[in-house]
Design goal:
Blueprint lengths: L2 H18 L4 E5 L25 H14 L3 E5 L9 H10 L3 E6 L6 H10 L3 E5 L5 H8 L4 H14 L4 E6 L8 H10 L3 E5 L28 E4 L4 E5 L2 E7 L6 H14 L13 E2 L2 E2 L3
Helix pairs in contact: 2-3, 4-6
The structure holds iron/sulfur cluster.
């Protein structure tokens, strides 16, 4: 599909999801474990031992998300390929007819894994590229050999024609390589986005609620949300609120329907590392 037509269709789908309050895009954090120790990581290391849903629990939530109208499911972490059941989860999700995006550091994707990703029909693999040289790359990730593993994964994924996207968190350590990273992504016809706003770590928020200065509207609770590894609903990966456990007595849909009112009554901006979340002069706006 031509890019303009795609954007038009996407805008239409998004508008409809807003009007009907559908959870169009959900980020599912499958684990907080990770084999890297990136300087820019917003997940506290102490969270790596946190409880995770078992496979049946993940399936149950995917089913509920599908029934509630979710179409784009992003699997993120931590590093998702540390989960032993990742292949079963991806296959199950695809059978539900959802679009899948994988957010991964890429280091655990070997040739065989790349083929499995392609066979399952994953729509996109999004990899963080912190550098081009081994010195910078491994320096940011804190893991020797990480550059080699990730670039080898990129080769394998390209060989199997898997859709790829890249992002880089701009740091002092990699500022001399940003151009080279962009050049590399362009050379293999892949998109690259620069994340120049480093998010504060989730457990160290310092937001001055007394002096609101700016506002924006996000889609959290309106067309998107996130699920924690333990199966709790929150507004987005960065906002640790309201964190309501999905259970037999409290389905995803029941929680989802309550979110707009909770956002109005609550103060999600208190938890938003982007600054002031959806705060406006009237306190908050649902669009
Ligand atoms: S790969 Fe991602 S989750 Fe792992 S340490 Fe780096 S930023 Fe954190």
């Amino acid at each position: 599909m031509k890019s303009a037509a795609y954007h038009k269709l996407w805008a239409k789908i998004h508008q409809q999801a807003r009007e009907e309050h559908l959870p169009l895009r959900v980020m599912f954090e499958l684990t907080y474990r990770c084999n890297f120790n990136c300087r820019h990581c917003y997940v506290p290391k102490s969270w790596r031992r946190r409880k995770e849903l078992n496979t049946a629990g993940v399936y149950d939530i995917i089913r509920q998300l599908k029934d509630a109208g979710c179409f784009y499911l992003g699997f993120t972490g931590g590093e998702i390929f540390l989960r032993r059941d990742i292949w079963r989860i991806l296959g199950f999700c695809k059978r539900q007819g959802m679009q899948i995006i994988l957010y991964t550091n890429g280091s655990l994707i070997d040739g065989q894994a790349a083929k499995r990703i392609a066979d399952i029909g994953v729509n996109k693999v999004d990899i963080t590229l912190p550098g081009i040289s081994e010195k910078v790359f491994d320096g940011v990730t804190g893991l020797k050999g990480s550059r080699q593993a990730v670039f080898s994964a990129i080769d394998s994924l390209r060989k199997h024609k898997v859709g790829l996207g890249f992002k880089t968190c701009q740091l002092k350590a990699n500022q001399g390589e940003i151009r080279a990273i962009e050049h590399f992504c362009a050379s293999i016809n892949c998109g690259h986005r620069l994340d120049d706003s480093t998010s504060p770590r989730i457990d160290q928020l310092m937001i001055d609620r007394a002096k609101p200065t700016k506002a924006f509207i996000c889609g959290g609770g309106i067309t998107q949300c996130a699920i924690t590894p333990a199966g709790r609903v929150k507004l987005c990966p960065l906002v640790e609120w309201p964190k309501i456990k999905i259970s037999r007595d409290n389905s995803f849909n029941q929680i989802w329907k309550r979110l707009p009112q909770m956002i109005k009554d609550g103060e999600c901006y208190k938890f938003c590392p982007a600054g002031l979340g959806r705060l406006t002069e009237e306190r908050c706006v649902i669009q």
